Amino acid sequence: MGDRGEKQLLGSKDHSETPISESPVDPSEDRSVNESVASFNQGEIFRAIQVVQRDSSAIAESFNSLFASLRLALSEVTGSSVDHMQCFNDAAGRLQESVLDAANKGNRYINSCLRLKEEMKGIDGLASQLKILRRNVDALDSAVNKILHVP
Length: 151
Description:
The chain has 151 residues and is mainly α. It has helices spanning 2-10, 27-121, 123-148.
Protein backbone atom coordinates (compact mmCIF):
# COMPACT_ATOMS: atom_id res chain seq x y z
CA MET A 1 0.00 0.00 0.00
CA GLY A 2 2.88 2.36 0.48
CA ASP A 3 3.09 5.47 2.63
CA ARG A 4 -0.44 6.56 1.94
CA GLY A 5 -1.82 3.21 3.20
CA GLU A 6 0.25 3.47 6.34
CA LYS A 7 -1.06 6.98 6.88
CA GLN A 8 -4.58 5.74 6.47
CA LEU A 9 -4.00 2.97 9.01
CA LEU A 10 -1.77 4.82 11.49
CA GLY A 11 -2.85 8.36 10.99
CA SER A 12 -0.36 11.20 10.48
CA LYS A 13 3.14 11.28 11.90
CA ASP A 14 2.05 13.43 14.76
CA HIS A 15 -0.48 10.67 15.59
CA SER A 16 -3.47 12.91 15.19
CA GLU A 17 -6.44 11.00 13.95
CA THR A 18 -7.21 11.51 10.35
CA PRO A 19 -10.33 9.86 9.00
CA ILE A 20 -9.75 7.57 6.05
CA SER A 21 -12.18 9.41 3.84
CA GLU A 22 -10.27 12.66 4.34
CA SER A 23 -7.00 11.31 2.99
CA PRO A 24 -6.27 12.39 -0.53
CA VAL A 25 -7.14 9.65 -3.00
CA ASP A 26 -6.75 9.60 -6.73
CA PRO A 27 -10.29 9.44 -8.26
CA SER A 28 -9.30 6.89 -10.95
CA GLU A 29 -7.79 4.62 -8.29
CA ASP A 30 -10.93 5.01 -6.16
CA ARG A 31 -13.11 3.84 -9.07
CA SER A 32 -10.99 0.75 -9.70
CA VAL A 33 -11.09 -0.10 -5.99
CA ASN A 34 -14.85 0.37 -5.93
CA GLU A 35 -15.22 -1.75 -9.07
CA SER A 36 -13.03 -4.52 -7.65
CA VAL A 37 -14.92 -4.39 -4.36
CA ALA A 38 -18.21 -4.41 -6.29
CA SER A 39 -17.06 -7.29 -8.50
CA PHE A 40 -15.74 -9.07 -5.41
CA ASN A 41 -19.07 -8.54 -3.67
CA GLN A 42 -20.99 -9.66 -6.78
CA GLY A 43 -18.83 -12.78 -7.10
CA GLU A 44 -19.33 -13.61 -3.44
CA ILE A 45 -23.05 -12.95 -3.74
CA PHE A 46 -23.31 -15.17 -6.83
CA ARG A 47 -21.36 -17.93 -5.09
CA ALA A 48 -23.56 -17.60 -2.01
CA ILE A 49 -26.67 -17.72 -4.21
CA GLN A 50 -25.32 -20.81 -5.97
CA VAL A 51 -24.69 -22.49 -2.62
CA VAL A 52 -28.17 -21.57 -1.42
CA GLN A 53 -29.65 -22.80 -4.71
CA ARG A 54 -27.69 -26.07 -4.53
CA ASP A 55 -28.69 -26.59 -0.90
CA SER A 56 -32.31 -25.76 -1.72
CA SER A 57 -32.30 -28.27 -4.57
CA ALA A 58 -30.81 -30.92 -2.30
CA ILE A 59 -33.41 -30.20 0.38
CA ALA A 60 -36.22 -30.28 -2.20
CA GLU A 61 -34.92 -33.59 -3.55
CA SER A 62 -34.68 -34.95 -0.01
CA PHE A 63 -38.27 -33.89 0.72
CA ASN A 64 -39.41 -35.37 -2.59
CA SER A 65 -37.73 -38.67 -1.71
CA LEU A 66 -39.20 -38.56 1.81
CA PHE A 67 -42.72 -37.91 0.52
CA ALA A 68 -42.39 -40.67 -2.08
CA SER A 69 -41.29 -43.05 0.66
CA LEU A 70 -44.17 -41.95 2.88
CA ARG A 71 -46.65 -42.37 0.00
CA LEU A 72 -45.36 -45.90 -0.59
CA ALA A 73 -45.53 -46.78 3.10
CA LEU A 74 -49.04 -45.32 3.39
CA SER A 75 -50.12 -47.22 0.29
CA GLU A 76 -48.76 -50.48 1.73
CA VAL A 77 -50.42 -49.87 5.09
CA THR A 78 -53.69 -48.93 3.42
CA GLY A 79 -53.49 -51.99 1.18
CA SER A 80 -52.79 -54.20 4.18
CA SER A 81 -55.69 -52.62 6.08
CA VAL A 82 -58.02 -53.19 3.14
CA ASP A 83 -56.83 -56.80 2.85
CA HIS A 84 -57.33 -57.32 6.58
CA MET A 85 -60.80 -55.79 6.44
CA GLN A 86 -61.76 -58.03 3.51
CA CYS A 87 -60.41 -61.07 5.36
CA PHE A 88 -62.33 -60.05 8.50
CA ASN A 89 -65.45 -59.51 6.41
CA ASP A 90 -65.11 -62.97 4.82
CA ALA A 91 -64.49 -64.62 8.20
CA ALA A 92 -67.44 -62.79 9.79
CA GLY A 93 -69.66 -63.80 6.84
CA ARG A 94 -68.65 -67.44 7.16
CA LEU A 95 -69.15 -67.34 10.92
CA GLN A 96 -72.60 -65.84 10.43
CA GLU A 97 -73.50 -68.60 7.96
CA SER A 98 -72.24 -71.26 10.39
CA VAL A 99 -74.19 -69.74 13.30
CA LEU A 100 -77.38 -69.57 11.22
CA ASP A 101 -76.90 -73.18 10.09
CA ALA A 102 -76.28 -74.33 13.67
CA ALA A 103 -79.34 -72.38 14.88
CA ASN A 104 -81.51 -74.00 12.18
CA LYS A 105 -80.26 -77.48 13.09
CA GLY A 106 -80.80 -76.72 16.79
CA ASN A 107 -84.36 -75.59 16.09
CA ARG A 108 -85.06 -78.76 14.10
CA TYR A 109 -83.67 -80.88 16.96
CA ILE A 110 -85.82 -79.03 19.51
CA ASN A 111 -88.92 -79.43 17.32
CA SER A 112 -88.18 -83.17 16.93
CA CYS A 113 -87.83 -83.51 20.69
CA LEU A 114 -91.14 -81.71 21.25
CA ARG A 115 -92.86 -83.97 18.73
CA LEU A 116 -91.37 -87.03 20.40
CA LYS A 117 -92.57 -85.75 23.79
CA GLU A 118 -96.10 -85.37 22.43
CA GLU A 119 -95.97 -88.88 20.99
CA MET A 120 -94.61 -90.26 24.27
CA LYS A 121 -97.61 -88.91 26.20
CA GLY A 122 -99.77 -91.70 24.69
CA ILE A 123 -97.16 -94.36 25.40
CA ASP A 124 -98.17 -94.68 29.09
CA GLY A 125 -101.66 -95.82 28.05
CA LEU A 126 -100.11 -98.17 25.48
CA ALA A 127 -97.76 -99.55 28.14
CA SER A 128 -100.73 -100.19 30.46
CA GLN A 129 -102.55 -101.93 27.65
CA LEU A 130 -99.44 -104.03 26.89
CA LYS A 131 -99.19 -105.07 30.56
CA ILE A 132 -102.81 -106.17 30.55
CA LEU A 133 -102.31 -107.97 27.24
CA ARG A 134 -99.19 -109.67 28.60
CA ARG A 135 -101.08 -110.88 31.69
CA ASN A 136 -103.85 -112.21 29.49
CA VAL A 137 -101.35 -113.96 27.20
CA ASP A 138 -99.59 -115.46 30.24
CA ALA A 139 -102.91 -116.63 31.67
CA LEU A 140 -103.88 -118.13 28.32
CA ASP A 141 -100.51 -119.84 28.06
CA SER A 142 -100.90 -121.29 31.54
CA ALA A 143 -104.38 -122.55 30.72
CA VAL A 144 -103.18 -124.14 27.49
CA ASN A 145 -100.31 -125.81 29.31
CA LYS A 146 -102.68 -127.20 31.96
CA ILE A 147 -105.00 -128.60 29.30
CA LEU A 148 -102.22 -130.18 27.33
CA HIS A 149 -100.58 -131.72 30.36
CA VAL A 150 -103.60 -133.26 31.92
CA PRO A 151 -102.62 -136.79 33.07
